[in-house]
Amino acid sequence: MLDRIVGSRRAAEGNGHLAVEAGLITDATQLASTRPTPWQTVQTARNIARPHAHDIISRVFDRFQELHGDRAFRDDPAIIGGIAELGGRPVVVVGQQKGSSTEENIERNFGMPYPEGYRKAMRLYRLAQKFHVPLITLVDTPGAYPGPEAEERGQAEAIASSIQLMTRLAVPVVVVVLGEGGSGGALALGVGDVVLALENATYSVISPEGCAAILWRSASEAERAAVAMKLAGPDLLDTGVADALIREPAGGAHTDHDATAAAIKTALIAQLERLSRVPVADLLSLRYERFRSFGMFVEPSGGTAPAPPRPWWRRILRNPLPKDAL
Amino acid sequence: MRLRNPFGRKTKEFPSHLWTQCPSCGEMLFNKQLDRNHNVCQKCGHHFKLGALARIDLLADAKSFSETDADMVSSDPLGFVDSKPYPERIAAAQAKSGHKDAVLTGDAQISGIPVVLAVMDFEFMGGSMGSVVGEKLTRAAERAYSARKPLVIVSASGGARMQEGTIALMQLAKTVAAVARLDDAAIPFISVLTDPTTGGVLASFASLGDIILAEPGALIGFSGARVTSETIGEKLPKGFQRAEFLLEHGFVDQVVPRSQLKERIAFFLNAFRVAGQDLRWSL
Ligand SMILES: [Zn+2]
Ligand SMILES: [Zn+2]
């Protein structure tokens, strides 16, 4: 089965229509030559007027019905999720929810989930799997909440379990990073067959401020840390962390929620259309390979299993399978 | 192994290359004796950190450990420079610890049971997980999977390695996916949490063992205690994020003193033994 995919992918090489059609950027050279600095991107990604999960869900999906609670402790407002329709077909959607005002941000805990938020997400992932409905996740968080109650309720366990569930969830999974992809708290929603990011989204192992405080011993070096960490759009393409970027309106996503949502919708429909043609067993092994291939190291002896030099699955995105291939 | 006086007091009577003061009870401990006791204070039972080689010595049967992927070294995926370039930090850590990176992996036997064993070393850049740690652990899990041998990972880590940026973060998903396959195949995975196990390591494979054991007093948590106390703007209660705290809150199975760790692991491995089908219940 895997061979067949590889074969048809090769046959389709040179066919770049998806990237154009869906407005996706799959190569940093496709970006404008005057790019924002990484620090400016960090600011844009955090802009309070930026479209957050609910702004996107209400524009991209039809008939969204929110589902609440982790069935164990409480309903975490920093993660929302439910069942909706995309282009007439059902999907499960789960996203981190930041606020659009200070008041809402306090209610939403600034988009920083507690363990029960991740456990609600897992409940919805399982629901998607049980009823064979594709899963779409929207990542937008400074990180998982680091407070003592979160520690008491097992923040690390919740994140680890959520990542684990996503690595083997037997339905197509598409991830869209809307704004901040903050560390493990983001990755708990971030394991998918395809990972897309908005043009001005960031994805990082630690906040630039946190990195600066530890490595430069001064949070005011955050700007330098942002450059060093390679957390902005074009860097995410280079490292393969994102498969493609979704173009934002000229002034940034916060200037036009409708246009941003429209671009996300086009991309999601195209990706789900493609993924729904891949047998689930193949999806799972491709997903394993996708995350398996991250890492750069040297083995003077040649090693037992050298990692592939170039993540080949990125080519899939640019060269979608012809509809009759499978 | 060389231990530093944790209080930084260097007295003439107790030169620090010979003596170490216990931070818990204040007793001056003779280093040779401490070594023999696997870095546990004879007076109060305080568990000092244990290096990877000493840990292997503690857990693996004599001469049973054969290292794999021994020469794998980090490259510099991001060209990362803070006050020092990342390759210089790697070189310094290699010189200081004697290891190529923060984990040793290999095949071993624990009380006669063949296992794949991975042991992290906090001495190497705080045991941080970058590409090398992620790849070696993933290969260890994959080898356990294909050989149907139990996997034992002893963690000691401050989290993901910042100098490898988002590539380091992706090691969480990579290692988790690898241990998930063991779960699917019903191959036992025992996770041992030692001082400290925090951040990205705890938020990935280390929290997913079939059995999770912790050493007494080990610092175990998602966020650094400093971040947590800054978040709430107050001091944290005594014992917060210690092994016993996690036991109380339901996130580790047992807190096991170092002296009993090997026999305890062997007990669980025997109970789950994949090959010894004759001993299993016929269900
Ligand atoms: Zn408590
Ligand atoms: Zn003592």
Descriptive overview:
The complex is a heterodimer of chains A (326) and B (283). Chain A has one domain (9-292): Alpha-Beta Complex (2-enoyl-CoA Hydratase, Chain A, domain 1). Chain A contains 15 helices and 10 strands. Chain A has helices at 2-11, 17-21, 38-46, 53-60, 102-107, 115-130, 148-152, 155-167, 183-187, 208-216, 222-229, 233-239, 257-275, 280-292, 313-318, and strands at 24-25, 62-66, 79-86, 89-96, 135-141, 173-182, 194-198, 202-204, 244-246, 297-298. In chain A, helix 4 (53-60) packs across helix 13, helix 6 (115-130) runs parallel beside helix 8 (155-167) and helix 10 packs across helix 11 (222-229). Chain B is α/β, with parallel strands linked by helices and 283 residues long. Chain B folds into 2 domains: 10-48, no CATH class; 50-277, Alpha-Beta Complex (2-enoyl-CoA Hydratase, Chain A, domain 1), CATH 3.90.226. In chain B, the strands form 2 sheets. In chain B, strands 3, 5, 6, 7, 8, 9, 10 and 11 form an 8-stranded mixed β-sheet that branches. In chain B, strands 1-2 form a two-stranded antiparallel ribbon. In chain B, strand 5 and strand 6 form a beta hairpin. In chain B, helix 4 (131-147) runs parallel beside helix 5 (165-184). The mean pLDDT of chain B is 91. Chains A and B meet through helix 7, helix 8, helix 9, helix 10 and helix 11 of A and strand 4, helix 4, helix 5, helix 6 and helix 7 of B. The structure holds zinc ion (2 copies). One zinc ion binds at residues 22, 24-25, 27, 41, 43-44, 46 of chain B.
Low-confidence stretches of chain A: 1-21, 306-326
Structural class of chain B: alpha/beta
Largest sheet of chain B: 8 strands, mixed
Give the ordered list of helices and strands of chain A.
HHEHHEEEHHEHHEHEEHHHEHHEH
Topology diagram in text:
The complex is a heterodimer of chains A (326) and B (283).
Chain A: H1 2-11, H2 17-21, E1 24-25, H3 38-46, H4 53-60, E2 62-66, E3 79-86, E4 89-96, H5 102-107, H6 115-130, E5 135-141, H7 148-152, H8 155-167, E6 173-182, H9 183-187, E7 194-198, E8 202-204, H10 208-216, H11 222-229, H12 233-239, E9 244-246, H13 257-275, H14 280-292, E10 297-298, H15 313-318
Chain B: E1 19-21, E2 28-30, H1 31-36, H2 52-59, E3 66-68, E4 73-74, H3 86-97, E5 103-110, E6 113-120, H4 131-147, E7 151-157, H5 165-184, E8 189-198, H6 199-202, E9 211-214, E10 220-221, H7 225-232, H8 243-249, E11 254-255, H9 258-272
Parallel strand pairs in B: 6-7, 7-8, 8-9, 8-10, 9-11
Antiparallel strand pairs in B: 1-2, 3-5, 5-6
Helix pairs in contact in B: 4-5
The complex binds zinc ion (ZN) (2 copies).
